[in-house]
Design brief:
- There is one protein chain.
- The protein is of the alpha/beta class.
- It folds into two domains: 264 residues, Rossmann fold (3-Layer(aba) Sandwich), CATH 3.40.50; 187 residues, Glycogen Phosphorylase B (Rossmann fold).
- Helices cover 38% and strands 20% of the residues.
- It contains 20 helices and 18 strands.
- Strands 3-4-5-2-1-6-7-11-12 form a nine-stranded mixed sheet, with helices on both faces.
- Helix 14 links the parallel strand 14 and strand 15.
- The longest helix is centred in the last third of the chain and has 16 residues.
Length: 477
């Protein structure tokens, strides 16, 4: 099979979040299964020179978008056995201040989506499947169906659209449809949802399959509590909705080789984890005590990550024999809260405000448990990374957290879970973690078992391959 994987970001070239990790790992895993998967992303000015030096110019063409006819250059590079295409237009992608959040994002990513379709005519690659991700590429299957199906090279292409976070849908006023997106008037029913233009809605409607990043999230987004308004549409299209749990880069996240750690280790040398704990305590201003349970938190400090639960119950947490170290940034009220707790409980609470990848890895390795009480979590990668480093997660049973973490009450447990979005239920899970932690022989067994959890991309890639085969039917032998 031949898959063209479209994403607005991909590691190692450009990344702001989990989408980039998926776009940098899943195609490689698919290629390892003897299929061909190529990735297309915008050529942002933020891509560092070390990566630009590896690119070579392939071709250029013009993209019709409404009344505009915009230049598009195509560069290519190969990394980890995967070929990447980079679409160049300096007007749209040579911007300072990040890759999202500009006044004309609708036009920028409509151009990207249209350019993806246009590019297929000019490259030596005939994809069987066009796999698009989140609203930034949602217009590609719409344009494909509306403008390109009469061209022989496009007739057999099937489309998959993956929802990584349903909160961000590409919603705008309908006045953008013709002038900015270049759509005919008869496209209005496809684009309109609840009185506005909704790019994600359109992709869901026209794609052959719709996937999400965990089986539980696929169920949750048909519920109004989680769907941000799209539940009616998703229930209508439930027959083509599937959830596939993401994996993690087990080469990049490997405690045996990770250069960020104070001491490398694996499941056979788990005792070396204690060195990482001791050094982390020192770095975060905590009392160096190998026997006290250390809770790690690495997240955005926003309400839907469950920070309000932590805030509500924190004083009661501090009555337990434990320490807390937190890394993140976000809402001022939560940043201030953690800083106040650090001042109130010196030696027991250590906080760093910001996004520091090196410190995040040190927390994954040095903490005993990893707290992740999200209100909603499409997939979540941090809990899988924590397990890889022998740090047991405490999570709420939602989205990918439910699919990846089984409570220690089960013989195959690999963490601690709670169901309702309730601070005292979370505290109960923390208490159960404390109870097991201070029974050291049983704790060590639990850590050994947790480190055997399989979150490699091979498992996920095989499920995607099965989905591709299903929509292609008899086209692939």
């Amino acid at each position: 099979m031949k898959i063209l994987y479209a994403s607005s970001e991909a590691t190692p070239f450009i990344a702001t979040g989990g989408l980039a990790d998926v776009a940098g790992s899943l195609p490689r895993a698919i290629c390892e299964q003897k299929h061909v998967c190529r990735v297309v992303v915008p050529l942002y000015s933020a891509i560092k020179p070390q990566w630009r030096e590896k690119m070579k110019f392939l071709c250029n063409f013009y993209v019709p978008l409404g009344w505009r006819n915009q230049y598009c250059g195509v560069f290519e590079a190969t990394e980890n056995g995967v070929k990447y295409y980079f679409l160049d237009n300096e007007y749209y992608f040579k911007r300072d201040g990040g890759i999202y959040g500009f006044y004309d994002d609708a036009e920028r990513f409509a151009f990207f989506s249209k350019a993806i379709c246009e590019m297929i005519q000019y490259i030596d690659f005939d994809p069987d499947v066009l796999h698009c991700n989140d609203w930034q590429t949602a217009m590609a299957p719409v344009y494909l169906n509306m403008f390109y199906r009469d061209i022989e090279k496009y007739r057999r292409i099937k489309t998959v659209f993956t929802i990584h976070n349903i909160q961000y849908q590409g919603k705008y006023g309908m006045e953008l449809a013709t002038d900015v997106l270049g759509l005919p008037y008869y496209a209005a029913p496809t684009m309109m949802y609840d009185g506005c233009l909704n790019m994600m809605k359109a992709a869901i409607e026209v794609s052959d399959y719709v996937s999400t990043v965990s089986p539980t999230y696929a169920k949750e987004i048909t519920d109004p509590w989680f769907s941000h308004g799209l539940d009616r549409l998703l229930r209508t299209h439930q027959g083509k909705l599937v959830g596939i749990l993401n994996g993690i880069d087990t080469i990049g996240y490997n405690p045996q080789t990770d250069p960020a750690l104070y001491e490398n280790y694996d499941a056979a040398t788990i005792s070396k984890k204690a060195v990482n704990k001791q050094e982390l305590q020192k770095a975060m201003g905590l009392k160096q005590d190998k026997d006290v349970m250390l809770i790690g938190i690495v997240t955005r400090f926003v309400a839907h990550k469950g920070i309000d639960l932590i805030q509500y119950i924190f004083e009661e947490m501090m009555k337990r024999e434990l320490q807390v170290t937190a890394l993140g940034s976000g809402d001022y009220i939560f940043e201030s809260f953690f800083q106040e707790m650090q001042a109130k409980y010196p030696g027991r609470v250590g906080v760093k405000i910001g996004f520091i990848p090196d410190l995040a890895r040190k927390i994954y390795a040095g903490a005993d448990v990893f707290l992740m009480p999200s209100k909603s979590e499409p997939c979540g990668l941090a809990q899988m990374v924590a397990l890889r480093y022998g740090t047991l997660p405490i999570v709420r049973e939602t989205g990918g957290l439910k699919d990846s973490i089984t409570d220690m009450g089960d013989p195959n447990g690999n963490g601690f879970t709670f169901k309702t979005y309730n601070a005292h239920d979370m505290l109960g899970a923390i208490d159960r973690a404390c109870g097991l932690y201070y029974n050291r022989p049983e704790w060590d067994k639990a850590v050994q078992q947790a480190m055997k959890s399989d979150f490699t991309w091979t498992r996920s890639a095989n499920q995607y391959i099965d989905m591709y085969k299903k929509i292609l039917g008899e086209q692939i032998g």
